[in-house]
Amino acid sequence: MDGTGLMQVLHLLSTVLSGKDIPAIEIEQGNRDRRSVIPLIPRNEPVKDYGHLRRPPGWTPATPLSTPQWCYFKVPLSGLPALRKMASSGTMRVSDNDILCAFCWQRISAIRLARGIPANTVVKFTRAIDGRTALGVPSSYMGHFIHHSIVSLPLGQIASSPLPTIAQTLRRALNATNTPWAIRSYATFIAREPDKSQLVFGGLRDINLDLGATSVVASAGDEAASAVPDTYGELGKVCFVRRPKVSPIAGTITITPAEGGALPVALCLPEVDLEALKKDGEWGRFTRFVG
Questions:
Q1: pTM to 2 decimal places
Q2: DSSP label at 76?
């Protein structure tokens, strides 16, 4: 089950607690056989290369530079128009999610560059994508459907490029990855692998350099919208959404639905990065530290 599947569980709970019947289509999707949801590509047709998901022999994860910690910041909705204006340039449409991911990547890159990491160090930004829409699968299907878009750039280029350039680069990568052929290729690649224990979900990551983002919202184009139902019968309304307190997953960014006029953003970074980010003036223009 992925995040959308979890949101569907909450939707079903909301439906039942509100005294309503679960629609037949949602019962059908909830019991759908996952083995036939994504049509695999025949062997005589081209398949997108996902070889980067294989674990190289002898590879071991990097050791954190300092203790990774979870930390919440809030992005006031009142500041989003200014951030959109900064990140909007040309005719290419970018979403709030593109802009927020680009902003996070740029500011974290800037503080790491200031700490002395060489500007030519290539770092990676991974975004979780729900492939249901591209393949015409209803959001009520509860099985795992996540794949990833990946952008790799030199640290100095990320820190020095205009924000619209980074946002558009992330958008192009997402558009290229979120297609029926790419998703079918992903499923086909995994199905053909003889030893799936050697695959790394989302590819290899250096926890001191690489970042990965996910978002718990109804639409990538509207970060103020929530994918979480707001009423649960006699239990009342949802007040907020938070990640559970889990072990640190360094390099993780989670954008959650708006509350109280702001978007909570959960970051898990090495402590040295979090301390530097709190002091970064540009980061502070658009965020508020929570803890």
A1: 0.92
A2: E
